[in-house]
Amino acid sequence: MVDKHRIVLAKEDFSPDECELIKQLAGYDENAADPKAELDRCLYDYLVFQNNYVFASKKLRTDLEILELDYRVQYDHRILKSIDSRIKSVKSICGKLEKKGVPLTLENAAFELSDIAGIRVICYYMRDIYEIKNRLLAQDNVSLLKMSDYIQEPKPSGYRSLHLIVSTSVHLAYKNVEVPVEIQLRTVAMDSWAGLEHVLKYKNPNGVSDEISEQLSDCADVISETDAKMQDIYKSLFGKKL
Ligand code: GTP
Ligand code: MG
After folding, report:
1. What confidence tens digit (pLDDT) does each residue in 92-149 have?
2. What pTM was estimated for this model as a whole?
3. Where are the alpha helices (DSSP H) in the chain?
4. Which pLDDT score, from 0 to 100, does residue 239 have?
5. How far is the CA of 158 from the centre of ligand 1 (A)?
6. By C-alpha distance, which of 20, 94, 93 is closest to 53?
7. Residue bearing the CA closest to ligand 1, atom 5
8. Where do the domains of the chain lie?
9. Measured by CB atoms within 10 angstroms of the end CB, which terminus of the chain is less buried, N or C?
10. Yes or no: is domain 50-241 CATH 3.40.50.720?
């Protein structure tokens, strides 16, 4: 399982470029009497802000890992294949706020962005996506803020995944905070399509033609049919176990 968490516990870990963006986000006071102390204040504020997301993500990852392990014991079934997680970089946070046309502040980042902490769960079967969703939302430390079911209603590109924005409480040293985390759930097949499509579009900054877009969408349809067939095969062989 890949863990791209970056727990920054030392302010020195931020690069000079990141420091400049953090100064903007944390409202660096150009007239401060002690510029070094003011920079330290900004880095500290950002550290505290970022770590809320790191901790929330770690908690949910652990919940998912426990679900996976217990599911294996109870049902002899691998309910998920892998979990990947990432925390949005300072650069991406600022880029997204600029795109939204809102001033770069930590308050705006917290209010406007629900995917600062992101977890991607890859399953073998479509049924397992919904099973994980149900089990996760049944936990009392997890509440649903928003659900986008791009499996039932694929995006025009053909993209399929179940997106959840959940809120989870994190118990810090001196207070509790509620933190939003975006969880994307998809099958191995959906994930391979999304990965390839992303690279193909990313490598064509001017966008791909309508014809290519249509071909990509057709591929997503074929993949979806295959997912449904594989699930039927699994069910016919092992369905009673679940
Ligand atoms: P973002 O600004 O990208 O976060 O979009 P959003 O907040 O409107 O959320 P949405 O649920 O539409 O998409 C969030 C994420 O889903 C993206 O960052 C991608 O990881 C993934 N995604 C959405 N649409 C597509 C698509 O057409 N192709 C691929 N490959 N990924 C997609
Ligand atoms: Mg998003």
Report:
1. 999 999 999 999 999 999 999 999 999 999 999 999 999 999 999 999 999 999 999 9
2. 0.92
3. 16-25, 35-75, 90-100, 106-112, 126-137, 188-202, 210-238
4. 75
5. 12
6. 93
7. 115
8. 50-241
9. N
10. no
